[in-house]
Design brief:
0% strand, 71 residues, mainly alpha
Length: 71
């Protein structure tokens, strides 16, 4: 939920409503957001999720954007 709040305040709220991000909401969401990124980084570095010979969720998640970049 905190990731959503961070994304809303930083990305979508200014573009969709023209309002400035709420600094209190951003401040409250930074630490949990960084903790989540740390967990993700730890798990992704345990093995090669993207360039291995196996199909992984990470590979599938970026496949669409890579296909758009190539075309």
């Amino acid at each position: 939920m905190l990731l959503y709040l961070f994304q809303w305040e930083r990305l979508f709220k200014p573009r969709l409503t023209g309002a400035r991000p709420d600094s209190a909401v951003l401040e409250a969401s930074v630490a949990p957001f960084q903790e989540t990124l740390g967990i993700l980084e730890t798990n992704l570095t345990k093995r090669n999720h993207v360039t291995s010979d196996e199909v992984t969720l990470a590979g599938i998640a970026i496949a669409g954007s890579l296909m758009e970049a190539v075309v």
